[in-house]
From TrEMBL:
SMART domains: Flavin_Reduct (SM00903)
Top-level EC class: oxidoreductase
Domain Flavin reductase like: 10-149
InterPro entries linked: Flavin_Rdtase-like_dom, NADH-dep_flavin_reductase, Split_barrel_FMN-bd
Name by which UniProt lists this protein: Flavin reductase family protein
EC number of the protein: 1.5.1.-
Pfam families: Flavin_Reduct (PF01613)
GO molecular function terms noted in the UniProt entry: oxidoreductase activity
Length: 158
């Protein structure tokens, strides 16, 4: 199978949208990702998948801490900014346990890097959850290469 067919098939899995953030030498770094999942309840572990070509790969390794902010339906521009698709100049980060987070996200999950595993052209970072914050709202979704608010009606995709 070719890469496009594989990507199209993977796009059939509806996901939420996250922004992964860290700080290194007083500079905040972030990237949009939808390859995120919980791994374990005891200990509390999550996983994010980072492309080997992404600048964030070395940043996470060096910083040793990161946050995953699960975006709300009103945060499309934030997702696009950290995906390099749209410039947003007025980002004011929240801070939890010394790690930058996206304000007004549905959840901010702060982690220490627990482990990392190279898998193909990505590295799976396992994070041990050290703190979190949860808010109410509706999730920003991603399906078939499009942002959406309601997966049952893709004509409303943003």
């Amino acid at each position: 199978m070719d890469d496009r067919t594989f990507r199209d098939a993977m796009g059939k899995f509806a996901t939420g949208v996250t922004v992964i953030t860290t700080v290194l030498e007083d500079e905040v770094h972030g990237m949009t990702a939808n390859a995120f999942m919980s791994v374990s309840l005891n200990p509390k572990l999550i996983s994010v998948s980072i492309d080997e070509k992404a600048h964030m790969l070395k940043k996470l390794e060096q910083a040793g801490k990161f946050a995953v902010s699960i975006l709300s339906e009103d945060q499309v521009e934030m997702s696009m900014h950290f995906a390099g698709q749209k410039e947003k100049h007025d980002i004011e980060f929240g801070w939890i346990s010394g790690v930058p987070v996206i304000k007004n996200a549905l959840a901010n999950i702060i982690c220490d890097v627990y482990d990392a595993h190279k898998a193909g052209d990505h590295t799976l970072y396992i994070g041990k959850v050290i703190d979190l914050c949860v808010c109410q709202g509706n999730p920003l979704t991603f399906y078939g290469g499009k942002y959406g608010r309601n997966l049952l009606d893709q004509s409303q995709a943003v």
